[in-house]
């Protein structure tokens, strides 16, 4: 019996699946240190592209906040917009500017991309603080670790709401007992 005869049928299929699993684990390890990744789809992504982006985010064990699915031109065709809503994903234009403006009670005027960035910042800092709490650090130790350091330049200049105050509020929220 030759090697090619042994390597046919179910054995060949299982070997292919094993190689695919090994590649997926390799990508997961390679991207594990990144706080956020961008899954960039082709222009005017169709349902296949959106589902592929969502599948990749799932395979990488990422969330909406840690793996942004975007397209250079966004989604405009009505049937593709409906598909994005069905998949519960937002596919903004990459580095989208303009569109609907957000005028906050305090702070600068922003657009949709700024809201997405702010939401992502909140989730990332919350996750960092949650990880430090799980490691057993106290509030003072967490503040000393500066989990919001890379956002201080953009969001830490407002004296009425400092990043230290934000860290304290997140800590209190994560450590308070939840009542039914």
What does this structure look like?
The protein has helices at residues 3-6, 10-31, 47-59, 78-86, 112-134, 139-145, 152-155, 163-175, and strands at residues 37-41, 67-71, 101-102, 110-111. It is mainly alpha-helical and 180 residues long. It has a domain at 100-180. α5 packs across α8. The N and C termini lie far apart (67 Å).
Number of strands: 4
**Structural class label:** mainly alpha
Low-confidence stretches: none
User: Outline, from the CA principal axes?
Assistant: flat
So how many helices? 8
> Rg from C-alpha positions?
22 Å
What percentage of amino acids are in beta strands?
5-15%
Instruction: Give the termini distance in whole angstroms.
Output: 67 Å
Element order: H for helix, E for strand: HHEHEHEEHHHH
Strand order of the largest sheet: 1-2
Mean of all residue-level pLDDT scores: 81
Helix content: 40-55%
**Sheet having the most strands:** 2 strands, parallel
Search tags:
180 residues; mainly alpha; two-stranded antiparallel sheet; flat
Give a short overview.
By secondary structure, this protein is mainly α. Helix 5 crosses helix 8 (163-175).
SSE order and pairing:
Elements (H helix, E strand, L loop, with lengths): L2 H4 L3 H22 L5 E5 L5 H13 L7 E5 L6 H9 L14 E2 L7 E2 H23 L4 H7 L6 H4 L7 H13 L5
Parallel strand pairs: 1-2
Antiparallel strand pairs: 3-4
